[in-house]
Write a structure and sequence with these properties.
- This protein is mainly beta.
- It folds into two domains: 1-49 and 56-122; 126-277, no CATH class.
- It has helices at 209-213, 219-228, 234-238, 257-262; strands at residues 13-17, 22-26, 31-35, 41-45, 60-66, 73-75, 79-90, 97-107, 112-117, 127-130, 136-141, 144-149, 158-163, 175-182, 187-194, 199-203.
- Strand 10 (127-130) and strand 11 (136-141) form a beta hairpin.
- The longest helix has 10 residues, at 219-228.
Length: 277
């Protein structure tokens, strides 16, 4: 089945949601949604417009497009999460330019919900993975993995961050992919593919402080408490942002003892336990 809609432009990323019955693809200036039953395009939309601020230099032209990355996904709640690139190009000297990256949240109807600017020290995200219930996404990139809310009240707010190392120079490393075993719904171990082909494992009992503080709650109840308290910040609602682990996916009682005997758990990142000689 051949799906069209991008007018010959290169497609950067594709995502499929069987629960929603749709497939989405993204190019530099267009996101298209298709019915996976017959391939018909049911919706398309452009990147959100950049709102020029008063302090923006008038000597620069501003262009906002979808970023050239595979980091793109659908949430089962009916949202599209993409990465956008905003380029500032000098009108007289094209070599003078800068680029800002941001996460963008859309509904499947194409309505823009919110923007989350990415740090200037972060490169383009490598992958975006939605949680099983669709209420959060994990963004892989330089330095580690960040977890963002999928919510119309607090769009893409950060609720946790997993770092690769406690070293200040850890930003030189990047996470390219992440997976959970034995299943995403009931994970015991997180595996991440990193720079230079490295593979790191972590037993999911509490990758950071937030998970230690919230081990009795699943992601649904934790995120649900945030949505029920829109006047509070994520930090206030959770009593301190740190991290999550097995309890984030509701599997606190099913953690494998064998996993903890091999993988050492330390706050702040993914670390290995050295085997005793």
């Amino acid at each position: 089945m051949r799906m069209v809609g991008h007018g010959g432009a290169a497609i950067f990323g594709v995502s499929i949601s069987c629960s929603l019955g749709i497939c989405a693809s993204v190019s530099s200036k267009l996101c298209c949604l298709f019915d996976i039953g017959n391939g018909a395009m049911i919706q398309n939309f452009n990147p959100p417009q950049y709102d020029r601020r008063q302090d923006d230099d008038e000597d620069y032209t501003i262009e906002k497009t979808f970023a050239n990355t595979q980091a793109f996904c659908l949430s089962t709640l009916g949202f599209v999460i993409a990465v956008c690139s905003t380029k500032f190009i000098h009108r007289e000297n094209s070599s003078k330019k800068k680029e800002l990256l941001s996460l963008e949240l859309f509904t499947v109807e194409g309505r823009h919900v919110g923007t989350h600017p990415l740090s200037s020290t972060m490169d383009t995200p490598k992958k975006i993975l939605p949680t099983v219930d669709g209420r959060a996404v994990l963004v892989c990139g330089r330095g580690g993995v960040s977890v963002h809310l999928v919510s119309s009240l607090q769009p893409l707010a950060i609720i946790d961050r997993w770092t690769l190392s406690e070293d200040k120079n850890s930003d030189q490393q990047a996470v390219y992919d992440i997976d959970f075993g034995p299943t995403l719904a009931r994970p015991v171990v997180a595996a991440v593919g990193c720079t230079a082909g490295a593979l790191r494992l972590h037993a999911l009992r509490g990758i950071s402080s937030w998970s230690h503080e919230n081990q009795r709650h699943t992601v649904s109840s934790a995120v649900g408490s945030v949505l029920a308290l829109p006047a509070q910040t994520v930090k206030n609602a959770f009593g301190g942002v740190s991290s999550f682990g097995s309890s984030f996916f509701g599997s606190a009682k099913e953690i494998s003892k064998e996993a903890f005997s091999v993988v050492k758990e330390r706050d702040g990142g993914f670390f290995f336990r050295k085997e005793k000689g």
